[in-house]
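USER:
I wish I could look at a protein chain and see how it folds. I am handing you a single protein, as its sequence and its fold in token form. As I understand it, each token names a local backbone shape. I hope you can help me see how the letters and the tokens relate. The protein I mean follows directly.
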Amino acid sequence: MADKTTPKHDTLQDIESSLTNTEMFIERNQKKLLMVLAAIIVVVGGVLAYKQFIVKPKEAEAQNAMFKAEYYFEKDSFNLALNGKGEVEGFLAIMDNYSGTKSSNLAHYYAGVCYLQTGKFQEAIDQFDAYDGADMMTSAMAMGAKGDALMELGNTQEAIDQYVKAAGKNENGFSTPMFLMKAGYAYEDLKNYDKALEIYTKVHKEYFQTSEGREAEKYIARLEGMKENGGK
């Protein structure tokens, strides 16, 4: 049987030929390659400089503005937190003046809560929708708060969907049972007592150690009593 193995000296010749061709290409296009390399260095350097000298200072300024707006928020001065006062910027101004920063994004969440607390429910929904919830907890809270706004607007089934979504976003002993219970209340508003009972039972079994878990037991007893009495 004939030996089809490529001779070693042929392989070496191929490698040498390839290297020669590469060297010739580099030599012929040296100026172009240097220009491309220089352009890459300029772009990378520009990005790094932008982050260092533009983004970081802007983020620091935004955080300082947020700190002042949050002060009003914590005092339940929701209009002041939204609109600011004097030299103090509110959440609405922070969104515009520090666009692209983490603080600007978080300002949407705070603004949504402010609108919710002041009875501007559609505005609250718009702000919650604009919030990009990178943080799992605030993301869940924004979804649940949007559910509250939808309930106020009479969109009960949509509110339920938001509550269930919020409950499953970051399952824990705080927000999950709270939003599940809200979903249960909303199902009762729709007179869907079977779904309400299903949710209360879930909360009672899986989150018994929480205040919602203990409260759910009372709701279960009430709905089971209603079923025994023919739903009355």
